[in-house]
Amino acid sequence: MTTPDPAISHGLTVANLVEMTRADGDPWHFSHVQRLLKLIALIGEGMVYDETAVTIATYLHDWGAYPRYRQPGVEHAWRSRQIAETMILPRMDLPETAVATILEAVEFHDYRDFRPVTSSEALLLREKIQDRFTLPIARQIAEVRLARLAQCLAWLHEESFTSET
């Protein structure tokens, strides 16, 4: 198990998680988190959920895949939960209900995990694969994005000067 970093031995804030995500993740990880947070805000409009908890979970959900924390043979969602539970959340000033919510969202975020979730926060973090969408707004957003993607692919195909056979 990875030992705690002395730099994170004191209290942590969401701002610390932002910087740690930038520092420890591959360059795409931070962009991935930012994109998810925007989608969560869109999909979650009108829903009751703990915005702080879902923000923290979104930052932490892939940490188990970061080279610094990865462990061979340990699935990244489970590893991310371990990191959150043992190294990060104990250093944050959060109510126990928020901690439980964050841990659920992190552990169950993978779209291939069909176990049911109990919190809105976990559902929002998981709503990212078209065939798994359960919320109507998520379906609407996906429909628009898929239509845009199809158009972009058609343009690329057209510009490649290839003919279909």
Approximate shape: globular
Q: Average pLDDT across residues? A: 85
Individual helix count: 7
Q: Structural class from helices and strands?
A: mainly alpha
Let me know the number of strands: 0
**Quick one: CATH class of the largest domain?**
Mainly Alpha
The number of domains is 2
Describe the model:
The chain has 165 residues and is mainly α. The chain has seven helices and no strands. The protein is globular. It starts with 13 loop residues before the first helix and ends in a 6-residue tail after the last helix. The model has no long low-confidence stretch (mean pLDDT 85).
Draw up the topology in text.
Elements: H1 14-24, H2 27-43, H3 51-60, H4 76-88, H5 96-107, H6 120-126, H7 136-159
Helix pairs in contact: 1-3, 2-3, 3-5, 3-6, 4-5, 5-6
TL;DR of this structure?
By secondary structure, the protein is mainly alpha-helical. Helices cover 57% and strands 0% of the residues. The protein folds into two domains: 123 residues, Hypothetical protein af1432 (Orthogonal Bundle); 37 residues, no CATH class.
Describe this protein with a few key phrases:
2 domains; Hypothetical protein af1432; mainly alpha; single chain; 165 residues
